[in-house]
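Quick illustration, no need to memorize.
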Amino acid sequence: MERPVVSGVAHDLSGATFAVVGISTMPTDWAQVFRSLANADLTLDPLTVAAPPAPPAQGVTPPSPGTTPPSVLDLNAYLMYSVGRAARRRLAEKLEARGLRLWHLTVMTLLAELGPQMKTALATRLAINPSDLVKIVDDLVRLGHAHCVRDRADRRRVVVRLTPEGEAALRSLSAEIASTDDEIMAPLDAGEREQLASLLRRVHGHLERAPAEQARRRP
């Protein structure tokens, strides 16, 4: 009974029958295990030992677990997903080292390009829940990257602006992001990178317009 892998049929005192598969990293008396778990005398019959995997034939290299099936590489949607996931992971690592996430970077970039913005306007532009936007802004304020003030024309509105420290942090982040782009695009020369960027912008514009066009068609 001392076998690392067993399978078979178990019978309890009432005569009930059920299938059993047991796996262990060390020799195990499975009857004793099931007697302890069920608090009843169990009979395992018949027992079979799982055969170990056969070694690869001589001269044959087993497939690597990280190898992507060639047919999947014909799917542009998969390629964009896979490359995007890798890029996002590398960018997230650089941001996390500064206590930031991608949403923080997005808000900082918008404030740098558009100037001070109301919280409600930021939430609308980013299409996120206003309460989530508040948490992002609070993080930036805590880190000293942003500052919130009441709108003089309407005290109910809160305006968010970058601090000088936030502007400096964004410049530093932009340099790190550029180095990340260089790492990801290493196989491409300058002309190929520009061509890829142009094509991706066209696809992005198409996908960005689609929801708006669908909304206009609704009755």
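The helical segments are 30-38, 76-96, 102-114, 119-126, 130-142, 164-184, 190-217.
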